[in-house]
Design a protein that fits this description.
Length: 358
Amino acid sequence: MVGSTLGTLFRVTTWGESHGDSIGCVIDGCPAGIKLTRKHIKDELDKDIPYPVLTRRVEENAFQILSGVFEGTTIGTPISIIIRNSNVESEKYKKIMHTPRPGHADLTYRLKYGHVDWRGGSRASGRTWISIIAAGAVAKRVCMLKKILITSRILEMGGHKVDDKNLKNVIEKLAEESKRNNDTTGGIIEVEIANIPHGLGVPFFNRYHADLGHGILNIPGIKTFELGAGEEAARMKASDFNDPLVVKGGAVTTESNRAGGVLGGITYGVPVVFRFAVKPTPSILKPQKSVNLRTMKSAMMSTEGRFDANFTPRVQVVAEAVSAIITVDHLMLAGYIPCDSIIPRRERLQYGLRENES
Ligand SMILES: Cc1cc2nc3c(=O)[nH]c(=O)nc-3n(C[C@H](O)[C@H](O)[C@H](O)COP(=O)(O)O)c2cc1C
């Protein structure tokens, strides 16, 4: 299976399946000199399941940093992180191994690979994205060097507009409804990347927002990617849509942010804002129409394995991690972060300084 790597200079390769022994990532290209402790990784992994009421599989996420970090600092070699799968129940998937779940990747994996691991969605499971959360923890440490702040919020869940005040109530209601109706729901998430330096993005073919879109649309279950005003732009006149240019604090900036912080594929210091839709969890207990692949006859099926009533809050954590990874890659591509080491060259070369190396 090719294509398990995200990034050009800051490269994250993930591996592992939902019900395998463990899941992990290798981060190649992280410069030396970044302060990184177990706690930085653990704090992010602990965000994996923000609302247990929505999820039936809660993992401990016991992990180990196998390489690339010494005495709490990155050393420029590949960072390898392994996360154990401990809470696995594979038996229930046996019953549906020949009847692909509608809306899931069972059919397409079968058509593409022929021989598949039928347990819990395997590589197509949301569980495998725990490795991206771990890699995102490293990327967030690099982002902090430039004081870049990545935040996100849920705008909608199960068709309800949500904010800080009603989110918990809506979640409880959706969890209860999911149990009662044997059905699931989706949501909409907005991400903001603030304190972003200008000049991130390469017009052909690594526009900053295009790379963000690439990362976000690779998260399972994501159906859209909208930058700034997004689809609304199609219904506006240019005179209403264009963000007027103004001078603030001696620098050129924009009065509004309908562009979403990227013009010509390049950032200009204004926060990058994008939104995306998360679909309803495809696995449901409610019987659905499928096909038995052995008999090639129509068959009703339902998923008895454990699944999320709504996985929007879990995607929030993953989307921040993806945004951090893409942003670090672009910081390196634009020369804001050196590839080898963040320790100043003069300090590194103190025993062999030459004039042209300073
Ligand atoms: C964090 C996360 C958790 C998920 N949880 C579930 C789940 O419990 N059950 C399920 O059927 N799909 C779940 N999904 C979605 C499926 O992985 C996804 O729909 C499937 O791989 C098909 O891919 P597609 O929706 O992009 O076509 C989850 C996705 C993510 C990112």
